[in-house]
Write a structure and sequence with these properties.
The chain has about 675 residues and is α/β, with parallel strands linked by helices. The protein has 18 helices and 29 strands. The protein has a nine-stranded parallel β-sheet. A seven-stranded mixed β-sheet has the order 12-11-13-14-21-20-19, sandwiched between helices. A six-stranded antiparallel β-sheet has the order 10-23-24-29-26-27, covered by helices on one side. A hairpin with a 4-residue loop joins strand 16 and strand 17.
């Protein structure tokens, strides 16, 4: 079963966008529950996540389970036509567990063991935790697998958010076993890790430790493998619990990912994880002080769609207004929550859920907004929640369709992890920032982008941009070369193709040739030295300027589009274009300012056979995305500006129920969804 099955179930056979929230009835007296369900019906809620942090109440002591209160809630929801995404509650062991099994708690890089008092106080490799989580999952799956309210399963919650990486003894043993499976011999590991440097050669597996705090920089290859291991150890936990559930139930299984702005530091390779999901789910929260946080939302939604392989996905959590964990938790302006929700919908989500249903009265998240705020129904938030529920109902016919994209951005997890390691040429070499800047440039041009891995089939895209692909495998490099030689247009940026999968420089120790080792021939360039810029410094280019980075090099077969005109790299190529087979490969050796990038994109688009969207220059704050299926096509338009925007489109606008007559006006801060005329 997948997202399409879920939306058809919610609609009684016809697609219906999922709408709801995390519901935590255990935080409230029983007399509140009936009132909650009445309000859910008023708002149009059709799906709630239940039991996510309920372990302590479901298992008050080891092996004794109490399901009575949860039975009542499940029955009440079913009686009122509200489906349940039921959690197995393994995300946060209760205090009795860590008291009974103290070595199950995670350990920091400095050797400090954590304890209970917040959440996720467990070590992923702890055998006691894995055994207890499996027992709890079995009890819940056996008890609820046939309950009529059950629509899907929610394993754990935001894996790795607070307890990874773990550097404790369980992780130490697990890491060694993982390394033995990966390398088989110590000779292979020593070669991959470059242990000849700093006298690090290993002669016995027992000598290898997690990369705990040391005197200075720990072996970067070791750090990279530990990130991979940490992701895999958590995936083992998910897959073990999911297998138990699937043995008892045919309902879809998911866990909630953490996007980019939340999950940047979590050691999770979501590309790898997504293969184990029946439905890909994601959590997203705006960074309130980011003035272009709607573009960050678009990027994260595009990335989630990439993890889902362009299938519909589920927005498991976002906020109706303020969150509780940022330095300044700024409330959303009127209409912003509606726009946020429809952005996710436009970019592939078929479900819009929030954390949480009712704003909490106590605890660390009591200032986190809910669908039902502390002030109750006579509020901006509640009125907008009811409006959103009605609006989603009107556009549910688009559920199951796919986003139409003509360009792709490459974002490999290993490349991100590798580029973020220490002792690099510049702290400014930040792959997520580079990704966002290129996504933003395409967003401003009205170009919808998919996000893919370097090893994915890219042949369907007219344009592929790989921002800061620092680490690349032989397969990834060969795939990008095939894409270009087959007629594609590729843009690679600085600090790309530098190291292999083990974080070793790609080079010829006899003949040299310089950077970027994996792509020198494809790009027709040779870079001999990096010249990172000082904080706030810019370098003058033939057109515009560049920030953060510059390079000294030369072309071999490429033509120069722009050069550095000052400083130690003066005269070196900054932007190049190279013909390779039937395609074109561009190289951008700095971070161009908006003017330089604006001057470059038309040439790139011309080579790719793309055009900027017609509305992009006149209405830069209008976001337009198309979803399509065999049943039709739908254009989503979201106006983030403070003035009316217009769009040439012919069809029926679903929210108002009126034909567009070939032209559509979208008011300031407004949204529209148009079913295109056949």
């Amino acid at each position: 079963m997948d997202m399409n099955d879920l939306t058809r179930r919610l609609g009684g056979g016809s697609p219906r966008v999922a709408f709801g929230a995390d519901y935590n009835p255990e935080q409230w007296p029983m007399e509140v529950w009936k009132h909650d369900v009445e309000l859910m019906r008023e708002a149009g809620v059709n799906l709630v996540s239940l039991g996510i942090f309920s372990w302590a109440l479901l298992e008050p002591e080891e092996g004794r389970y109490e399901f009575g209160w949860l039975d009542e809630v499940m029955d009440l929801l079913h009686e009122n036509g509200i489906a349940v995404d039921l959690a197995n509650a393994s995300a946060s062991p209760p205090p009795w567990f860590t008291v009974k099994y103290p070595d199950s708690a995670p350990v920091s890089a400095d050797g400090v063991r954590q304890t209970h008092g917040s959440r996720q106080a467990f070590a992923a490799c702890s055998p006691d935790y894995r055994r207890a989580a499996a027992a709890l999952t079995t009890a819940i799956a056996e008890h609820y697998s046939d309950h009529p309210a059950l629509a899907m399963w929610h394993v754990h919650n935001e894996y790795g958010c607070h307890n990874q990486p773990d550097f404790g003894p369980h992780a130490e043993r697990g890491f060694r076993a993982w390394l033995q499976a990966r390398y088989e011999t110590l000779d292979a590991l020593n070669d991959a890790w470059g242990t000849a440097f700093w006298s690090q050669h290993y002669y016995d597996w027992s000598e290898i430790m997690p990369p705990r705090r040391s005197g200075t920089h720990v072996n970067p290859s070791q750090q990279l493998d530990f990130a991979r291991f940490s992701s895999d150890s958590l995936l083992e936990c998910f897959e073990a619990e999911a297998a138990i559930i699937r043995a008892h139930s045919d309902k879809p299984v998911t866990t909630n990912f953490m996007g980019l702005n939340m999950g940047l530091h979590a050691p999770i390779d979501y590309w790898r994880w997504a293969k184990s999901m029946d439905i890909v789910s994601n959590d997203h929260y705006l960074i309130a002080e980011d003035h272009r946080n709607h573009q960050d939302l678009a990027l994260t939604a595009d990335l989630t769609r990439g993890w889902a392989d362009n299938e519909p996905w589920l927005l498991m959590e976002h906020s109706t207004s303020a969150v509780n964990w940022q330095p300044r938790n700024i409330a959303k302006s009127p209409g912003q929550m509606l726009r946020n929700s429809f952005q996710h919908l436009a970019r592939g989500a078929d479900g819009i859920l929030f954390f949480q249903w009712r704003a909490s009265r106590a605890g660390a998240e009591k200032y986190h907004s809910g669908m039902l705020p502390h002030a109750g129904r006579d509020t901006k938030v509640w009125r907008e929640v009811v409006e959103l529920g009605a609006s989603l109902e009107k556009v549910s016919e688009a559920a199951g369709s796919r986003v139409v994209a003509s360009a792709a951005l490459v974002f490999d997890t290993d490349a991100r992890w590798g580029a973020e390691l220490d002792s690099h040429p510049s702290i400014e070499a930040q792959p997520v920032r580079e990704l966002r800047e290129w996504h933003d440039a395409l967003y401003r041009a009205g170009i919808t982008t998919d996000l893919r891995q370097s090893t994915d089939d890219l042949s369907a895209y007219q344009l592929v941009v790989a921002p800061m692909l620092y680490l690349v495998t032989d397969d990834g490099a060969a795939n990008l070369r095939r894409y270009v030689e087959g007629g594609g247009t590729l843009v690679l940026t600085h600090f790309s193709g530098i190291v292999d999968e083990h974080d070793r420089i790609i080079m010829d120790p006899i003949n040299g040739g310089g950077y970027p080792g994996a792509f020198r021939e494809l790009l027709g360039i040779e870079i001999e030295e990096f010249f990172p810029l000082r904080a706030g410094e810019a370098v003058v280019l033939t057109a515009g300027s560049g920030a953060r980075w510059s390079e000294l090099g030369r072309t071999t077969t490429a033509e120069v589009i722009s050069r550095y005109e000052a400083g130690p790299t003066s005269g070196s190529p900054a932007v190049t274009r190279n013909v390779a087979g039937a395609g074109i490969a561009y190289y951008v050796g700095t971070a161009p300012d908006p003017a330089a990038l604006a001057a470059l994109l038309p040439q790139v688009f011309a080579d790719a056979g793309l055009e900027a969207a017609a509305h992009a220059s006149e209405f830069p704050d209008l976001e337009v995305v198309t979803r399509a299926s065999g049943e039709g096509s739908w254009v989503f338009a979201i106006n983030h500006g403070d003035a009316e925007a217009r769009l040439g489109v012919n069809g029926s606008e679903l929210l108002s129920g009126t034909p567009t007559g070939g032209a559509l006006a979208i008011p300031a801060g407004g949204i529209a969804v148009v079913r295109l005329s056949a």
